[in-house]
Amino acid sequence: MASYLQDPQQNTPDDDDWLGSVRRIRTTHLQRCKDRDQRFSMLTCYDALTAGIFDEAGIEVLLIGDSAGNTVYGYESTVPVTLDELIPLTRAVSGAAQRAMVLVDLPFGSYEQSPSQAVASSVRLMKEGGAHGVKMEGGAYYADHVRAMVQAGIPVMAHIGFTPQSTNSLGGFRVQGRDDAATALLEDARALAQAGAFAVLMEMTASPAVETVTSEITVPTVGIGAGASTTGQVLVWQDMVGLTPGKAPRFVKKYADLRSVIAEAAGSYRKDVLKGSFPAPEHVFDE
């Protein structure tokens, strides 16, 4: 076995399939993607079974997003989500993922007060949840927060553009980075990268602005509704497989229709139970 497989910290060989051969994805591997103009994939994840599936499929980064507020806890937004709610989900994913990097969102109210609060919250997510790093929403104002976390040994993915935790102050779900706002987006990205963020995620952001940011900063960029120029792409996994009800956002591609499959299976199960055909003899212990 090659030495880089024994020690995932080492550089990988210069071949087209190097990323798929890495035993544990690290920030250095994502940076190498950026340097080589290659891509990586990222999905949200909130439980052990799904984490195992995505890990086997080769997804490079799993994110325990505060989108769990919508997909797991049934909240109307991500704002109510707490650290205590994300830690057990993070523990489940980190315990099941053998290869993927596991990141977790800093939820609303867990970091804004000060850099020290951000460090303390991140430490909990890493020590109690087993996360490999955190994602934090906010622009250049939070550069000192990022700097403090990085100095404490915490890998940070910055999140700019549309930031769901700030939906109320942004005036709703609006595309960011258009016209004059593109300059501010670039300034935010530069400040956060210079502070030590290992990557910058941009959500629901105008593609031309994203292209500029991607070309101007040296760290990887990740997009969700941000065009094709970013180093990585992320989706909420329930959106990706068609579990989420209603019309999907424009930037979502449905790779399956699991909602219909599961609904059909549940309906068939109910019918079998009502007519007494389940459990059948083969499902029963005779002795």
Automatic annotation (TrEMBL):
UniProt entry keywords in alphabetical sequence: Cytoplasm, Magnesium, Metal-binding, Methyltransferase, Pantothenate biosynthesis, Transferase
Keyword Methyltransferase in annotation: yes
GO biological process per UniProt: methylation; pantothenate biosynthetic process
Catalytic activity: (6R)-5,10-methylene-5,6,7,8-tetrahydrofolate + 3-methyl-2-oxobutanoate + H2O = 2-dehydropantoate + (6S)-5,6,7,8-tetrahydrofolate
This protein's record includes keyword Cytoplasm: yes
Cellular localisation: Cytoplasm
Signal peptide: none
Domain of life: Bacteria
Cofactor note: Binds 1 Mg(2+) ion per subunit.
Pathway: Cofactor biosynthesis; (R)-pantothenate biosynthesis; (R)-pantoate from 3-methyl-2-oxobutanoate: step 1/2
Cofactor(s) annotated in UniProt: Mg(2+)
Main location: cytoplasm
Top-level EC class: transferase
Positions bound to 3-methyl-2-oxobutanoate: D66, S67, D105, K135
EC number(s) reported in the record: 2.1.2.11
GO molecular function ontology, one term from the record: 3-methyl-2-oxobutanoate hydroxymethyltransferase activity
Summary of the function given for this chain in its UniProt record: Catalyzes the reversible reaction in which hydroxymethyl group from 5,10-methylenetetrahydrofolate is transferred onto alpha-ketoisovalerate to form ketopantoate.
Assembly, per entry: Homodecamer; pentamer of dimers.
Listed HAMAP family: PanB
Family: Belongs to the PanB family.
Protein name: 3-methyl-2-oxobutanoate hydroxymethyltransferase
Species this chain originates from: Rothia koreensis
Gene: panB
